[in-house]
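Two proteins were folded this term; both appear here.
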Amino acid sequence: MDLGIKGKRGLVTASSKGLGLGCARALAEAGVDLVMNARGAEALETAAQAIRDDFGVAVTAVACDVTTPEGQAQVLEAAGDIDILVTNAGGPPPGMWSDWDREDFIAALDANMLTPIALMKACLPGMMDRGWGRVVNITSQSVKSPIAVLGLSNAARAGLTGYVAGTARQVAPSGVTINNLLPGIHDTDRAAALDGGVSRQQNISVDEARSQREATIPARRYGTAAEFGAACAFLCSQHAGFIVGQNLLLDGGAVNLSL
């Protein structure tokens, strides 16, 4: 399917690996020129060069911490007038409710709520003026079904979800859509870290921890960054203009909702 976005310009944060990289590669395959961001310069440039080589699109790599005002300014200056924004950030560490203090919540909010909001506020006016734009926020299945040990993530991402619900309806008349993609467990470094935690806690191997988690997923496997990226690219396409303010699960059926 031709997604109709060849020649568009997109910004994808936290895109040197994992789900962010999956989204960047899928957009590049559709012909989108990219601004990619991550904190690690070497991994970011390696990922960016691979995309240039594989898809022939222009890629600008900006290595910085986008959760800081300085990093946001640097990324936005490099991005210029973009048509597509994909926000992504690593999740906060797991733990128990009694583990977290105010500073932990502030850090989670900065990364997983306030940074996406800041980037949207910066990019939405231009999209609205031009009459077209796509925003996809990568959040979590925990928005639909909170995960006990991920309380920091639950709180921050739920706040972002509430913000998007209202904002998406306000910008839609200008041809701009905002939607959230809610990943379940995908085969990324984040999943490996969570499996490692279970391995240590239960004194089992990492493979056993992964097998346990896979057994809880109706698809009986972890998702892949490539299939996640393909879903993101569709939401950014010309065909998705009637999808507004939605929270779309990509979780292999792990969350069982009737509505």
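Next, the second protein.
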Amino acid sequence: MTVQISEHFTYKKLFRFVGPSILMMVLSSVYVVADGLFVSNFVGKTPFAAINLIYPFIMILGGTGFMLGTGGTALVSKIIGENDREKANKTFTMVIIFAVILGAVLTAVGMCAVRPVAYLFGATEDMIEYCVLYGRIIIGFTTFFMLQNIFQSFLAAAEKPKLGLFVTLAAGCTNFLLDALFIAVLKWGVVGAAVATGVGQAVGGTIPLIYFLRKNGSLLKLTKTKLQFKPLLQACGNGSSELLTNVAASIVSILYNMQLMKYLGENGVSSYGVVMYVQFIFIAIEIGFTIGSAPIIGYNYGAENNTELKNVFKKSMLILGIAGVVLSALAQALAVPLAKLFVGYDEELFDLTVYAFRIISFAFIFSGINIYSSGFFTALNNGLVSAVLSFLRACVFQITFVFILPLLFDVDGIWWAIFATETVAFVLAVIFFIAMRKKYRYL
């Protein structure tokens, strides 16, 4: 039986509603990781380092999809809460049309920029062609990547999270199977990895598009409309924190790679790549919970149901607090087998990866609440607070710590920078939760 966003949420109903979004994000992360896993084991550590080096640029281009998805969902959920379905459908359609147009522009820009960007990021002559080849193929699928990210959010708002899960499964299985075929069997190297990822993104972006174009039983459908500046600007403003988070995280990854090339060389970049791949999976649980619960927050805010807003907020904070401790402990326990899975063929790289991952795992204690804090204020249509939280956490704090801590603790400072960032960001999130409680009445 489908749980509706207008219901009173017990823990059981909350888990049922957000569960598909969590699984969706975890599976999305797993199939992103598939490229790295196959390239590292079947192509080599230099190509592996190369795709890790250029991947932040790809994420910067596709990050606009997260902005439009989360910001648009917050706006549309609020309109649904105000009981204006026609306006909600038109706003939803505007977001999708705008995403297709913007995706085409970003694809053209990315294709031209990938080589100079790779050099800017510190690619060596051994790495540059791998960077360009992998980057240009995946950038060709940017529009599909954006649509996939957008529909992940909107399917929850449309009360169809199970369809979102199915789409992610279809995209993930496509990517994983094609990785195995193109890399392990046909020996296409980084070309195979890039094509597999791109086709998976095409599946993830096309299935929901077809669903919403047809007559369906969800809260949303694509309809005839004209692009209007105001709702698009509002959606972008609401989701600006997610764009900032994505861009900042990519910039930070670039800076981490530069620092690691300076202190440890190619092994450092490869090790960081493994840690980030595994981190994707762990924080995907927290991101999935945030995405899944956002429509509930937006709906109850629009409906002025403060009692339910308080209920969902308190339950979410408790769940994420417990999840943070559990994930940190799990990361410690799985450090060795996960490192072996990626780089077990190189003893020095393996030892470095295990060491790094065990330090970084402490960051999971606070990361869930930090991610939720930004998503929560986005759902309340307060893009400014959400953007401040995201920008400080993902950019200012990390950049500060990644440059200062190595001066004090050598290369260990690079690994500890992530934990330091999450700790300070947690304090900031608590301050904002307390400061804004009277305005939104969630406490």
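The CA atoms of residues 29 and 281 lie 5 Å apart. The two ends are 30 Å apart (CA to CA). These notes refer to the second protein only.
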